[in-house]
Fold this sequence. Notes:
Layout: E1 11-17, E2 25-30, E3 35-38, H1 55-74, E4 77-80, H2 102-109, E5 113-116, H3 125-136, E6 144-147, E7 152-155, E8 158-162, E9 166-167, E10 177-178, E11 181-185, E12 188-192, H4 202-210, E13 215-219, H5 232-248, E14 251-255, H6 264-277, E15 281-283, H7 285-288, H8 300-306, H9 311-317, H10 321-326
Parallel strand pairs: 3-4, 4-5, 5-6, 12-13, 13-14, 14-15
Antiparallel strand pairs: 1-2, 2-3, 7-8, 8-11, 9-10, 11-12
Helix pairs in contact: 1-2, 4-5, 5-6
Amino acid sequence: xxxxxxxxxxxVRPVAFESLGVRSMCTYVETPDVRILxxxxxxxxPRRFGFPPHPKEYMALKRSRRLIxxxxxxxxxxxxxxxxxxxxxxxxxxxxxxWCSEEIAKSIYEGKLVLAKSYRSNVxxxxxxxxxxxxxxxxxxxxxxxxxxxxxxxxGDTTISFSKPVFHGPxxxxxxxxxxxxxxxxxxxxxxxxxxxxxxxxxxxELILAESPQLVVLGGPPLYLVDFSISRGELExxxxxxxxxxxxxxxxxxxxxxxxEKDWRRFAQPVLEAAxxxxxxxLTAAEFMGGDEELLEARRRELFEEDPPSSAFVRWMKKPSxxxxxxxxxx
Length: 331
């Protein structure tokens, strides 16, 4: 597939995203000096519309996990922007939601330099616990782990810079903080935002614009959680910040939370128009790769109606959660 990238010296290749059928923002980045795998995690949403994941989602999950492992084999550096399971790989066995095991975690992190969000500061209780567990389990296979918050790492003529911790969505979010990552080589700059959800926070928008990237991977707002975990006012802030970004950045990959809603383009229409007026592009990860979108979670109800799972899969679905995690689904 031909990548629709404005960059020539920095290769950016989406690995797993919502537009590719799973919950993830995993991205492979390569410069003449270093190979980086950003946020090597992938998950499925446990329930949407009253349904568990469809077999097609599990096939996408299995495929995405294979691609993550293959990308990790090439990488020198693996990053962790925060400790949600769609952004890092735990070492326990879970075939029900994360398609992970100790063997898989080892294959991703073994021998790598892991640049990770600190679990000691600017972190909520859940991520503090997960971060500590990561260092004792998956992270034990790494060559070394460095807390990356606010730091820059140099590899030849390439720099990998991490932002200070920014909010996971709205200001004061219960979900805590994440790190954004900027890769620079010569005059080229690529920025990976992680779960800024828009961004909703104006300061996060300013940090993105200050980096002057030619290409940004942006996690959009979770439209399906409006009036639940984000307000209508916060959604409007996300839209305004998105417009400012796409007017300044030549190419934006807009994906992740926003694509868990099938009708996401209706919300994004003013943003798409702002980018078009500036002569800039907004693409999903699938479009950036030159492929078709697979919004499987957003279409979960339709999938169950149009393509009912096999009786063997239904029996597996009815098992207790702990049993499903220990047994691969029949696909």
